[in-house]
């Protein structure tokens, strides 16, 4: 083995992932040629106890090689998830990514790949589904009450004047729209998919801010957008990030005077990634409430008499966090506050 090969092996030996190389040459039957020490550290295997791993790596190999020989080039690199048995018998969810190694004439001579423990990702997905179910229930319960009440009013209100009946229709339409948003944005499957991996969607961060400001303009004319060097595109779940900005703007509008300016700023973050912020010059957050602001159901002293469920900021932070980012709040020295979204996307 040359020095480059020795260095490569050294890197694989110290990786936290399990790396493997199977020999596919005639008569080898997928014999394990290399298995990194992480197999022992994570799965309890020794080189003498690799049959369980070997069986999982080669169980679909004959069909894969047959389809490759038939011209299906998508079989060169394959990723799949399964539950891999630990040496002590308990199952560990893993993702196996493997690629065929070809000789100069294009024939497969080896299979190289890695095995990643995805237990944390599975747990996170389960938590997201539980969160979405809880949040959907929290919204649906009062909406169902409103829905039933307005239907009864419509049925029994034939004697009401035209203006009242129109108000009933508007309320019913608003309830239907909110229920539709729950189905679109807050289903367990939808929430579990946000931020799970790099999204195929690209969106202009400046367009996100401008669209949010435009949506808020009927309620507050003094909303402005400041671009301080945003990239042209970023990858995220656009619907999820629009929801976060709508929640932050809604809070800013509800808790400031009508003439108070609200500013949306987008820029490269000093720690890398992108920063999107919603600032106003209204009252700050009481210091004893700052740490509780994103808790489920929390409503501060200033919220007394203002409609709300205490779930908006809780939901906003959850969406940002499944993108791998953070949502924080800080008070300005004189007056006002800033909600800061940080996203770990290339700037």
From TrEMBL:
Taking every annotated instance into account, which residue ranges of this chain make up the domain PAC? 78-130
List the signal peptide residues: none
Q: Does the keyword Transmembrane helix apply?
A: no
Q: Name one Pfam family in it.
A: HATPase_c
Q: Which organism is this entry from?
A: Pseudoduganella aquatica
Keywords from the named record: Kinase, Phosphoprotein, Transferase, Two-component regulatory system
Entries under Gene3D superfamilies matching the protein:
1.10.287.130, Histidine kinase-like ATPase, C-terminal domain, PAS domain
> Per the record, what are the reactions this protein catalyses?
ATP + protein L-histidine = ADP + protein N-phospho-L-histidine
Q: Where does the Histidine kinase domain lie? A: 134-347
The EC number(s) attached to this protein equal: 2.7.13.3
UniProt key word tRNA processing: no
Q: What is this protein called?
A: histidine kinase
GO MF annotation list: phosphorelay sensor kinase activity
